[in-house]
Amino acid sequence: xxxxxxxxxxxxxxxxxxxxxxxxxxxxxxxxxxxxxxxxxxxxxxxxxxxxxxxxxxxxxxxxxxxxxxxxxxxxxxxxxxxxxxxxxxxxxxxxxxxxxxxxxxxxxxxxxxxxxxxxxxxxxx
Length: 126
Ligand SMILES: [Zn+2]
Ligand SMILES: [Zn+2]
What we know:
Blueprint: H1 2-15, H2 28-40, H3 47-51, E1 54-57, E2 70-71, E3 76-77, E4 83-86, E5 92-94, H4 95-104
Antiparallel strand pairs: 1-4, 2-3, 4-5
The structure holds zinc ion (2 copies).
One zinc ion is lined by residues 71, 73-74, 76, 93-94, 97.
Signal peptide: 1-23
GO molecular function, one term: zinc ion binding
InterPro entries: AtBBR-like, Znf_RING, Znf_RING/FYVE/PHD
């Protein structure tokens, strides 16, 4: 059931109801229904495309304004040395978080820019 809860979380963030819904209160049938919604509306990237995204290692910077970078998917602050994926829109996320996200929805969770991979325009080698 863990995979389903993760999909639930992503779906709820997508529709903006995360704060109102407690997954523990949903029935198994409701969980299944949500899982099917995610499944039928899946327009995600392939694993190959995701793996070709630009990855970076997060480095803590001492900003004077004290702003810290936070992964909006899991809502945790990045830690020094963590692997992130930098999207073409300059937003970055934990590689694990954005990988799960992009498998379902190939847009940036923050700005809704469609994620494109630079290798997508070439002709496939045959
Ligand atoms: Zn994260
Ligand atoms: Zn973005």
